[in-house]
Amino acid sequence: MRDIGRSTIIGIAIASLILFVAAVSAGNNALAQATRSSPAPAEAAPSDDAPITQIALTEKQIEGVLAAQKDMNALDDKLPDNPNVKPDSKVIAQLDAIAKKSGFASYAEYNNVIDNISLVLGGFDPTTKKYIGVQEVLKQQIAAVQADTKMPAKEKKQALDDMNAALQTPPPVIENKGNIDLVAKYYDKLAGALSESEDE
User: Fold this and answer.
1) 30 and 71 in contact (C-beta within 8 Å)?
2) Secondary structure (H, E, C), the chain
3) Minimum mean pLDDT among 4-13, 79-88, 89-98, 183-192: which range?
4) Angle between helix 187-199 and 59-74 (nearest 10)
5) pTM here?
6) What is the C-alpha separation between 119 and 40, in angstroms, rounded?
7) In the predicted structure, residue 92 carries a pLDDT above the cut 50
8) 143 near 34, Cβ under 8 Å?
9) How far is CA 29 from CA 32, 36, 84, in A?
10) Which of 81, 79, 108, 103 lies closest to 91 in space, CA to CA?
11) 129-181 pLDDT, tens per residue?
């Protein structure tokens, strides 16, 4: 998914993306599926390098994101690949309309809610569906790659290098601890909806 002021799963860790690509190219479908179906860990900041404005999420906001996701994803092809290129004003108006229809004051508010959800999702263990923190998720992914005997050595080294580098970047502290419980309640729906948006 393109980033044009709209974050998908914020801070999708380079390590997870490389892990997924390496797993697919190595024919390790189980690892690829596990990586694809789980949200990637968050990095220190969203991909547009602006710090996240953390908020206390509400059920209404999460339900709004879930309601808007399909329509938002449909606009992806209309967004420029380059985040420095301003999208067409009609597309911006459509994004705002979808956000408002889903209960948000604006597309910017929708985007901030996505950022906050993604910040929390990045710390969930996809197997147990429990929050363990971004650093622990990365450590698990590193262990999975190290144990993978089917991944070509060059790709394995690159994936491990990238994940270890990501591990050195401390993730932001989640300021609103209630967000963890709320995201946990909607984990399956959010992980599914946001993973689908990334696959497109």
Assistant:
1) no
2) CCCCCCCCCCCCCHHHHHHHHHHHHCCCHHHHHHHHHCCCCCCCCCCCCCCCCCCCCCHHHHHHHHHHHHHHHHCHHHCCCCCCCCCCHHHHHHHHHHHHHCCCCCHHHHHHHHHHHHHHHCCEECCCCEECCHHHHHHHHHHHHHHCCCCCHHHHHHHHHHHHHHHCCCCCCCCCCHHHHHHHHCHHHHHHHHHHHHHC
3) 4-13
4) 20
5) 0.71
6) 10
7) yes
8) no
9) 5, 10, 35
10) 79
11) 999 999 999 999 999 999 999 999 999 999 999 999 999 988 889 999 999 99
Using only C-alpha atoms, the chain has a radius of gyration, in whole angstroms, of 17
End-to-end CA distance of the chain: 7
Q: Give the position of tokens 């390790």.
A: 28
CA distances for 32 relative to 39, 42, 123, angstroms: 12, 18, 19
Tokens representing 39 are 């949200």
Report the C-alpha gap between 42 and 104 in whole angstroms: 24
C-alpha–C-alpha distance, residues 147 and 76, integer Å: 36
CB contact at 8 A, 198 and 77: no
Task: Round to whole Å and give the CA distance between 18 and 31.
Answer: 12
Given its phi and psi angles, is residue 53 left (phi above 0), alpha (psi -120 to 50 degrees) or beta?
Answer: beta
